[in-house]
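A student in our group prepared the protein record below, which I am reviewing. What it holds is a sequence and that sequence's fold in token form. My question to you is simply how this chain folds and whether the tokens agree. Do not assume that whoever made the record got everything right. I have pasted the whole thing underneath without changing anything:
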Amino acid sequence: MSNAKNTHSRLVYSTDTGRRCPQCQRPVAECVCGKDRPQSIGDGIVRLQRESKARGGKTVTVITGLNLSPSELKPLAKLLKQKCGVGGSVKDCNIEIQGDQRHLLQKELEKRGYTVKLAGG
């Protein structure tokens, strides 16, 4: 085995300092990114999932895996809601769009350069 470090790996936890910021790679307590820090880096794939549990039978499309800060998610959510002609919201760094809009959202996000997968039911 070689002692060379993998240059593509990103440290997310250290026993010395604990969790690290995915953007600036500093310990979370010393992070300089502030509120604009993305929650996680993820695998770079945006997933579109249809959900209806705990929503009174109403269906929503949940968009996960967008590695954007909360201040960047809101304008994207607004644009996607306008494209679909429906309402929605940003919750827990995910975008929720009313109704089953997966195929329309997939086309729109792919136009914007994202790798998109349809996930779940």
